[in-house]
């Protein structure tokens, strides 16, 4: 028996890799956050699903490891299971279930699926930072934001704001503005690959005063990022002439 930790992408069937589809097909049971299992059941209606709510990650992974002792289980995560997903936690808890084999199945992260919608903002070096302070202290997040800004990385922000922390994006932009021009080209995409998808390219100064939510991925360009024909592009230095 095996536990597949599966990244299913942004939520559209097109963003789900063939490996992810195969792992889910080979599984007897699907386990995940309620929002994610609802998405998966649209594509695999015959599969049995179990779910837990927000902030029940440890219980969810333990349940998956327990069930995987008797049957093949797919523990589903949006995007990629290593990037803010359950892959690391599954390995941490595997010592309690030494007979359960784990296989991580990579998925398409919102950084790449969202970046493709905006154009090509990630052609050069970039940093991915979550603004959620549930598991990472706010001062650590600010330190990482400041370091990425100083190093002139393109920055991708996950979890930019929520009902309980509406000003996190504004604060993050203020930190980045210490070392980045207000005219820096930025962009965001909401509901990537799902109903209601929308996107916008704007300046860092405009982004600072924009209200977004947890379903949005934010892209902050570096000093060379430009807007070309309505698309956000970060050059890598190739000769164009």
- Please write the CATH class name of the largest domain: Alpha Beta
Question: Would you identify the CATH architecture of the largest domain?
Answer: 2-Layer Sandwich
Fraction of residues in helix: 25-40%
Query: In DSSP terms, counting alpha (H) and pi (I) runs of 4 or more, how many helices?
Result: 8
Strand arrangement within the widest β-sheet reads 3-2-4-1-5
The overall number of domains is: 2
- In terms of structural class, how would the helical and strand content be classed? alpha/beta
Listing every helix as H and every strand as E from the N terminus to the C terminus, the arrangement reads: EHEHEHEHEHEEHEHEEHEEE
Q: Based on Cα principal axes, name the global outline.
A: globular
Mean pLDDT: 95
Task: Please name the defining characteristics of this protein.
13 strands, 25% strand, Methyltransferase, Cobalt-precorrin-4 Transmethylase, Domain 2, five-stranded parallel sheet, Cobalt-precorrin-4 Transmethylase, domain 1, single chain, 241 residues, alpha/beta, 2 domains, five-stranded mixed sheet, 30% helix
């Amino acid at each position: 028996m095996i536990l597949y930790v599966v990244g299913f992408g942004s939520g559209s069937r097109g963003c789900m890799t063939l490996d992810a589809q195969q792992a889910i097909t080979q599984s007897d049971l699907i386990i995940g956050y309620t929002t994610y299992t609802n998405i998966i059941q649209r594509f695999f209606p015959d599969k049995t699903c179990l779910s837990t709510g927000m902030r029940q990650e440890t219980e969810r992974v333990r349940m998956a490891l327990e069930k995987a002792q008797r049957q093949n289980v797919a523990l589903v995560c949006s995007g990629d299971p290593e990037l803010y997903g359950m892959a690391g936690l599954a390995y941490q808890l595997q010592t309690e279930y030494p007979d359960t084999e784990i296989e991580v199945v990579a998925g398409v992260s919102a950084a790449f699926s969202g970046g493709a919608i905006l154009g090509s903002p990630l052609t050069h070096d970039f940093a991915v930072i979550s603004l959620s302070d549930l598991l990472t202290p706010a001062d650590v997040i600010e330190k990482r934001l400041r370091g990425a800004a100083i190093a002139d990385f393109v920055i991708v922000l996950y979890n930019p704001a929520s009902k309980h922390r509406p000003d996190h994006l504004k604060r993050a932009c203020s930190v980045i503005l210490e070392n980045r021009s207000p005219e820096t080209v930025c962009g965001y995409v909401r509901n990537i690959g799902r109903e209601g998808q929308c996107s916008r390219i704007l300046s860092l100064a405009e982004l600072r005063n924009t209200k977004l939510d947890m379903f949005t991925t934010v892209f902050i360009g570096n000093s060379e990022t430009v807007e070309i024909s309505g698309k956000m592009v970060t050059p890598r230095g190739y000769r164009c002439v």
